[in-house]
């Protein structure tokens, strides 16, 4: 088993052991995502999971901090300055996320082959948690608040090895 744990951070050890137990059950991806979301709702750490310097983000794009990685899952903190956003993308695995600060505005899409269709929007606020699994996870995320946003993401893959949780970037027109 490959395992990389960064410096211990407040609340991270409880998450790692809880997620390990859930992943060990061998559930299907969607059920795993929902079970990890339930755990995250109960154990969502505070902003002190990152150092004050890490919480600043960078001026040119959102930043990710790999907090824990092993073969079965990874925990990543994402820092978004106001109006920073992702490209439209999907993921290599199930994902669960919890919002620590800011507002993550998520736009969901369906791939129609030669174009995308918007199928939903959500404003994810501090304390809110959600989870999903491919297929059907095509989205774009933007921090629409006036403050730096921080979210905690759990992916069902070792993003330390993969380099990213993104499976595919979508450059199709949206109709």
TrEMBL record:
Keywords: Dioxygenase, Iron, Metal-binding, Oxidoreductase. It comes from the Bacteria. CDD domains: cupin_CDO. Coiled coil: none annotated. One of its GO terms (molecular function) is dioxygenase activity. Belongs to the cysteine dioxygenase family. This is Cysteine dioxygenase family protein. The lineage of its organism: Bacteria, Bacillati, Actinomycetota, Actinomycetes, Streptosporangiales.
